């Protein structure tokens, strides 16, 4: 007896869901390890303000030792006192290192200095340092692109490379957490210096997520939206009006909420982590061959994202074509 077409569709869909859920469960059991930061050493670049400082506070609340890295010593000293106030034990070490992550030798020095001050190599590395200075493409100088690439991409790559080398040599089952942006999942006018660097981080993280498995080093990548921080104030100072119009007037998330979203994502074993619904939809639409956070929900949101993305692209194109000079 021939199987009706509708029954074939149901069978195919059911098979797809069963295989997908089974693959996710199998992957979770094989690869995802508990996140237990107590007694471990967290190394955080961009740790004197914004997301980096908020993350340091959350980690010391969980019992971590913390090293924060940034360029300005005065801001580092102030942040250290604030972070120390959140400790759950006087034995926790909270230290700072003044360094420029765009300088290779500074990165090497910072990791060695952190080891000496804390007494151990970092177990977890969070690369939070970065900045955006949005402008129209044709109003930028060539040096602007190089400067952004050094800070937002190479500054994270240098830290990840040196930290992973230390983890491998010391047989540390560590974690490297890159901080990209929602603009590492989509882009539009004004972000020609910034967005490509955040897309590049995604490519690096995708590579290392797979490659560093041989050393039991986990890799995660965070795609936050706008964060209410000093960096966001600086970003808005040069941001073209049309860019603001396309973004809309949404309220930026607090550094604490972003830090909690990142922490919870790592604790859940997620590779790609976001902090808001739009980011989740974009993640699902652009996940590629990486593991899902929830197979069924990710599949549903990916289907929703396709038509929504096309509509958003039409909107962004319309806004640019009809934009008036600032």
UniProtKB/TrEMBL annotation:
GO biological process terms on file: 3-keto-sphinganine metabolic process; sphingolipid biosynthetic process
Record's function text: Catalyzes the reduction of 3'-oxosphinganine (3-ketodihydrosphingosine/KDS) to sphinganine (dihydrosphingosine/DHS), the second step of de novo sphingolipid biosynthesis.
Location of the protein in the cell: Endoplasmic reticulum
Protein's organism: Syncephalastrum racemosum (Filamentous fungus)
InterPro entries noted in UniProt: KDSR-like, NAD(P)-bd_dom_sf, SDR_fam
Transmembrane annotation, as ranges: 6-27, 176-194
Metabolic or biological pathway, per its Swiss-Prot or TrEMBL entry: Lipid metabolism; sphingolipid metabolism; Sphingolipid metabolism
Record GO terms (molecular function): 3-dehydrosphinganine reductase activity
Entry's EC annotation: 1.1.1.102
Secretion signal span: none
GO cellular component: endoplasmic reticulum membrane
Upper taxonomic lineage: Eukaryota, Fungi, Fungi incertae sedis, Mucoromycota, Mucoromycotina
Name listed for the protein in its UniProt record: 3-dehydrosphinganine reductase
This protein's record includes keyword Ribonucleoprotein: no
Domain of life the protein comes from: Eukaryota
Catalytic activity: sphinganine + NADP(+) = 3-oxosphinganine + NADPH + H(+)
A Pfam family the protein falls into: adh_short
Entry keyword set: Endoplasmic reticulum, Lipid metabolism, Membrane, NADP, Oxidoreductase, Sphingolipid metabolism, Transmembrane, Transmembrane helix
């Amino acid at each position: 007896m021939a199987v009706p077409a509708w029954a074939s569709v149901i069978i195919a869909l059911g098979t797809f869901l069963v295989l997908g859920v089974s693959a996710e469960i199998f992957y979770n059991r094989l690869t995802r390890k508990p996140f237990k930061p107590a007694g471990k050493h967290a190394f955080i670049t961009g740790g004197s303000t914004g997301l980096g400082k908020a993350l340091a506070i959350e980690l010391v609340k969980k019992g971590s030792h913390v090293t924060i890295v940034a360029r300005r010593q005065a801001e580092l000293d102030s942040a250290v006192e604030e972070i120390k106030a959140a400790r759950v034990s006087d034995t926790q070490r909270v230290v700072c290192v003044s360094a420029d992550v765009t300088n290779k030798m500074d990165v090497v020095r910072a990791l060695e200095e952190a080891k000496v001050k804390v007494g151990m190599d970092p177990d977890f590395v969070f690369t939070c340092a970065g900045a955006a200075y949005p402008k129209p493409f044709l109003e930028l100088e060539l040096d602007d692109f190089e400067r952004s690439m050094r800070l937002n991409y190479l500054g994270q790559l240098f830290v990840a490379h040196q930290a992973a080398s230390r983890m491998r040599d010391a047989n540390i089952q560590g974690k490297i957490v890159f901080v990209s942006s929602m603009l590492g999942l989509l882009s539009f006018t004004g972000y020609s210096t910034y967005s490509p660097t955040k897309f590049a981080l995604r490519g690096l993280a995708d590579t290392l997520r797979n490659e560093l498995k041989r050393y039991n080093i986990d890799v995660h990548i965070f795609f936050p939206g706008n964060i209410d921080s000093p960096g966001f104030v600086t970003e808005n100072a040069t941001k073209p009006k049309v860019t603001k119009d396309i973004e809309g007037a949404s309220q930026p998330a607090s550094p604490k909420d972003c830090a909690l979203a990142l922490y919870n994502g790592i604790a859940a074993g997620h590779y790609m982590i976001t902090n808001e619904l739009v980011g989740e939809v974009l993640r699902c639409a652009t996940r590629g061959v990486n593991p899902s956070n929830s197979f069924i929900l990710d599949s549903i949101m990916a289907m929703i994202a396709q038509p929504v993305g096309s509509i958003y692209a039409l909107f962004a194109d319309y806004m640019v074509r009809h934009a008036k000079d600032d």
